[in-house]
Amino acid sequence: MIAEKTTLTLRLTGLLILITLGFGASGFAQSGEKPEKAAAREEISLPENAEMRQRLHAHVEHLGGTIGERNLWRFADLEAAAAYIENQLAAAGCTPAAQTYEVHGKQVRNIIAEIKGRDQPDEIVVIGAHYDSVRGSPGANDNASGVAALLEMARLFCDRPQSRTLRLAAFVNEEPPFFKTEKMGSRVYAEAVREKGEQITAMVSLETIGYYSDEESSQRFPFPPLRFFYPTRGNFLAFVGNLGSRALLNQALEAFRGAETFPAEGLVAPGWLIGVDWSDHWAFWRAGYPAIMVTDTALFRYPHYHSPSDTPDKVDYPALAQVTQGLTSVIEALCND
């Protein structure tokens, strides 16, 4: 028993050291204020973002409202979501391709749109979002918000080749019971590109990115000591990576902060920390690629997570537009720097 307690103490101490090192290396907590005293998020309504907000709203409304719950148990709705994504990618000027595989006797698919790079086409940046929802939930924030941002990025980048190749990926079967199984869409995809020997230089998973709150103590944490390093108001976008993806996280966070006033925080932590691997980036870690998750932190903030009340009216569309705009700068940095 004493040995077990000693091991646990060392593990937690090691985590704190690693997280603290991550803060220093990644430029986290740069403000001189204590996190709980940080200023409320400044809402900015830029005229040029009005149309983007409308498009994002329309995507979330269609996926999370008109279609609603979409998964293998609501297969017609899963197919409707896939068709909608393919049509929107085509309308943006991309040519969507399907990676199809069988699950419980049904054909499901990942949807990939590739914009070939001008100068370094063999170096590939993947931006992904899962389009399925958990059983019993319409999945407006989780994850129609991420898909909406992905579709907006298609509109912005399909006719604008970057130096590196950009792939926009809508993944199926991220939610339980398929998460981390061989039937998880992003795992199927990551294993396929690894088998081909493709050079994925960066992967960014857009996971539940539409809910923000300026209320005190609205932000919770998977590891309580994190509250001493991060804001306790859930008004920021989180960039999350493992130790092997630190350089990627630094680059993405710097690009976002350089382009947007929207609050952003980063966390580099061991993959076993609760919540750090809860999205499609996990599949790319498993395949040996650098990958990060961009998120509003989901269940650590969002009261409607994985519930019937995860509906389109819960999404903060002005914030989602700011986040999406900032993420376009992240894509430009990853594809060109």
Automatic annotation (TrEMBL):
Pfam families: Peptidase_M28. InterPro entries: M28_fam, Peptidase_M28. Residues 110-327 form the Peptidase M28 domain. GO terms for biological process: proteolysis. GO terms for molecular function: metalloexopeptidase activity. This is Peptidase M28 domain-containing protein. It comes from Geoalkalibacter ferrihydriticus DSM 17813.
